[in-house]
Amino acid sequence: MAFSEDSTIGDVVSRHPDGRGLLYEHGYDLGDGFIDVLSQNQSLLSAERGGRLRDLPALLARLNRG
């Protein structure tokens, strides 16, 4: 299943082997433990709109690269 702007932060972390690192490179710092349920369920688009994530199209391209 491909990642989209509706994918959640939790989806990225759990389904992509480099998800945590890619999120960090695009400005989203998960911190230690990542236990905040609200953050885990936040969509990538919502994170971008809230200023926590940069360059969503580039992130999606990297996540969906085969």
Notes on the structure:
With 66 residues, the protein is mainly alpha-helical. It has one domain (9-28, 37-63). It is built from 5 helices and no strands.
Features:
globular, 66 residues, mainly alpha, single chain
Helix/strand layout:
Layout: H1 9-15, H2 19-25, H3 37-40, H4 44-49, H5 56-63
Short summary:
The protein has 66 residues and is mainly α.
End-to-end separation: 12 Å
Question: What is the N-to-C succession of helices and strands?
Answer: HHHHH
Report the total helices: 5
* Biggest sheet features: none
Low-pLDDT windows of residues: none
Give the radius of gyration: 10 Å
